[in-house]
Amino acid sequence: MNQIRRKWTIILVTVTLALTSFVGVNVQRPAAAAGQSDPNEFIKGVDISTLQALEDKGIKFYDGGGQKDLLVILKEHGVNYVRLRVWNNPIEAEGYNDKAHTVAMAQRVKAAGMKLLVDFHYSDFWADPGKQVKPAAWAGLDFAGLKQAVYDYTAEVMNDLKAVNAYPDMVQIGNEINNGMIHPEGSASRFDNLAELLKQGVKAVRDTTPQGHTTKIMLHLAEGGSNDKFRSFFDNVTQRGVDYDIIGLSYYPYWHGTFQQLKTNMNDMAARYGKQIVVAETAYPFTYENGDDLGNIAGEVETKVAGFPASAANQKLVTQTVMNTVYHVNDGKGLGIFYWEPAWLPGVGWKLGEGNGWENQAMFDYQGRALDSLQVFQYTPGSITETAPIMVYASQSITTVRGETPPLPDKADVLYNEGTVSPADVTWDSIPSEQLNTPGKFTVQGTVAGLNQKASIEITVLENPNLVSNPGYESGDLTGWTMTGTTTAGKIDESAGNAHSGSHSFNYHHNTDYSYKLSQTITGLKNGTYRLKAWASGGGGETKLKLFAENYGGAALTTDAVNTGWNVWKPYTVDNIQVTNGQVTIGFDVEAPGEVWGFFDDFELIEAPPVNQVKNPGFENGDLTDWTLTGTTDAGKVENNAGNSYAGSHAFNYWYGTPYAYQLTQTINGLENGTYALKAWASGGGGETKLKLFAETMDGAAKAMLSTDIVNTGWNVWNAYTVENIKVTDGQMTIGFDVEAPGDVWGYFDQVELMLVEAAPAEPAPSEPAPSNPDPVQSPDRKDTNQTVTVGPEQLKHNQAGKATVELPPTASKVELPSELLNQLNDDRLEIKTDNLTLEFPSGLLKDLLGELPEGEKGTLALSFTPIGKAEAETALSGRNPGLTVQIAGQAYDFILVLQTEDGEETGISHFSQPITIRLKADPAADRRLTGIYYIANDGSMEYAGGSWTGGELTAQIDHFSMYAVLEVTPRFDDVEASFWAHDVIQELAAKQIMEGTAPGAFEPQRSITRAEFTALLARALGLQANGQMPFTDVPVDAWYAEAVAAVFEAGIVKGRSSESFDPNAAITRQEMAVMAMTAYSITNGTAAAVDITLPFKDMEEVDQWAIDSVRSAFELGLIKGRKSDLFVPQAWMSRAEAGQVIHRILNQ
């Protein structure tokens, strides 16, 4: 059993299994015929490989009111065999289960009078069907060396056990080796190699077995209910002459099929190969409660699959049924069972530093006290004199469409106490029509003649039908599907334990590199919006794994899937498939190295139901979030009382003691243009003089109002009211209720819906993109789907301004630009637009990036722009200056740009040779002075990228990709009060990181500014960077201002005191500031101001001649003012506040 494999296992199924009692009535069958195994020799074993770790943690065990050694407790309860695993070098397990620990534990087992099974994993840690990792010490060996290592290691362990008189009675060569062991050489896809490795392990056991001692050898597979897998494996073993005695199976009832499937498989194994049979692993939960901080592997979902709710009694019953099923294997070949880790309690994890997901399947409670289920080992297999029913399995779940009555099965499967499952007639309860007309899930029960137990079946009602043919492969083949590429890599798997639901799934695996496409084309569709969903699981490692929708009239849409483990099923979706040609092709596109494997199941393509555009539609936020209440505001409130609501637990309630009037409204922006329907539910006592549900839109320059009257007729008499045919042409609508009433009139509103009925016809694209929509930015908490758009030439919209635009659907978060697209751009700039984001690439940059491809090769630029939720963005800003108040004021994105070759090789691109223009929508309520686009670094710090406002958007130039967000940043300095003359300027420049404080909470506005400080200020404000060498010997290369001085000097804005001296620490005079300011102004504006003006200052004679023209121009432009109305004070030091004011005026001229 591999705790790694099962750590995160969540089997999501639609089958609900019900059990109401375990006692049958008047249904008896004869006991199995003679020929079963000897009950006195029957193995009632346990795997207690974690015991040493538990004891070292101080965990103790109790039985009969007192503390005892675990081995004593187990022996007293009838356990006669112990299984111990052995790992080569288990660093991740703190050394437990290595050879030394196993030898020490083996001595204790023998001293306790029990037999011993040693389980070789041939790995440094857990081995199972999904993970058979070669020991690190064997990594450099060739195959001959690997075979010798298997022999030597096995013999070494066996000889050490023999030396302490603890030689095993049974040995496992490998653990759950369905897919082989010691990968890659020992993979089942290389069965000749695997057989040679198995033979070496077997030979080492045979060679070291003491004279007169009998040791049986087991080959062990998982999935005990999967007969085809066992046949395939052991046929290969037999063909290659591998010597062994026992076929071992793992059987966990919630993973590995029914008891009948186990029984059938074991009988077939015994008959086909003549070997004895052992269930080497089984277990079942006694509780759903968690004993530590790691979730339980087997919970309610798993026990519903098996059919037995978690309890100590059912733990005992399930284990007893496994024993009986093994005991009744034909010809006495059923040798026994091992319960896996019945004492693994909280305190010892599956690996160092982690918790334990198995504790609820132990046979001791979390305080170490033995449960009644431990008595199962005192049970004598074969003691039953007649078979009796113990459970009715739930029938296979059914999916139907709203309003349709599905056909129900005539029979239900009944489980008997020796493992047989037989069908029995069932009469189902009637189904209320309301359930069949309400999308969702419900369970119907049925009566099986002669039994107290109830049959059950889960029915799923869909709003719209699933349009995929053979969506879960329950036909047993690929009917309806097409597989191209490496077709030998895929097949239908018939094991319910591997399926997401039902008993079949699509399985892929190949022993060499492979690629394929699994697809289905669905025709005859009504044009409209569709949603694709599919489930996937697997070991991971694919180089491409994409759920796709294509050939629907638009660009291919894809969603990346990531497999993380066996039976770790995850759903993947492709939304917003806008079918315009009556068809769509859906499926998975896969590329993978050899030995990578996975499963697909339960595809679903449905016509997407309309989305409710109303926020907080049922007031379930508990307040009026997103709503506005005007007029007699005291008349309305959100009430938390499910008894007074139409749905959920909240509703809007109105009442007032005197006459009142109010409007409850919500303005919705960003709507797709088209026709809408508004619906709401209302109830109340009646008596209102005005009670209207309304919708207000713009019809050109005029407002258009549509409404419907509401008539309340009593408490909790809920009625639906609708406003239809609402035309939206500008993406905006205001909806709400308009109420006037006498005093003491009361009522309720709930469940407000605004649905798109028909989208407006598409309009031809303008020659120049329309101005940005000034609607508010979408909520920063929005979670978009992970869709990919591959751009083709037909998607490029060229205009006369030298720009080619690609408009993406709102759900896209990745765009792929094939290298062939470069020829279609014709040197145009490329603009990529989605709902809140625009990126503009210079044509030269695209040439540079694609020029990195090997000559003559094609490739793709893959750009990901993953939306980041508000909470995640706030977490990412953890390293920001604590003196800043930061608000998320728009959608944050994480950008990644990768160059992909035809061979799949990827190169990340971190910096650009030319800047990219980024435009992000911003919250219109944000303070424009303090809002900009910021780069958020991995350490949580942030860097201002820019932010010029145009039509509700912010624009900046960026030279690298990472995480960017629109932020409203409010700096606060204790020494700059709100009344200070330069407060707003200082705050804005600090927000844009042009000027910073001198210490936490301090700005020192009146302190003089040095030449180095002002030079750095100019460099940041103007975005200057140095290219040449530093000419000044008094500016150290590593000084914080060195690059700024070099950049500003190169731009001609400042000069040195001499050719070698800059004098960085000298304060700047006001006349020097004027010269620098005017030089900077001429660079940013392309010209200088006129100088033929007379200044109003009496001290102009104190201005040096070299500065006089700059002082005149700076004053005329308003860059610098006098200290007093008639004094300029040219030789005075410039303060930090004055410097900030100058920079601010330069930037805003």
Question: How does this structure look, described?
Answer:
Residues 1-34 and 764-784 have low confidence and may be disordered. The longest helix has 21 residues, at 143-163. Strands 19, 22, 24, 25, 27, 39, 42, 45, 46, 47, 48, 50, 51 and 54 form a 14-stranded mixed sheet that branches. The chain has an 8-stranded parallel β-barrel with strand order 2-5-6-7-8-9-10-11, surrounded by 4 helices. Strands 40-41-43-44-49-53-52 form a 7-stranded mixed sheet. It is built from 20 helices and 54 strands. With 1149 residues, it is α+β, with helices and mostly antiparallel strands. The two termini are 73 Å apart. It has 6 domains: 45-383, Alpha-Beta Barrel (TIM Barrel), CATH 3.20.20; 390-462, Sandwich (Immunoglobulin-like); 482-607, Sandwich (Jelly Rolls), CATH 2.60.120.260; 628-759, Galactose-binding domain-like (Jelly Rolls), CATH 2.60.120.260; 787-971, Chondroitinase Ac, Chain A, domain 3, CATH 2.60.220; 994-1147, no CATH class. Helix 5 packs parallel to helix 6 (191-208), helix 16 (1011-1022) packs across helix 17 and helix 18 (1070-1085) packs across helix 19. Helix content is 18%, strand content 32%. It is globular and about 120 Å long. Pfam families: Big_4, Glyco_hydro_53, SLH. Its EC number is 3.2.1.89. Residues 762-812 are annotated as: Disordered.
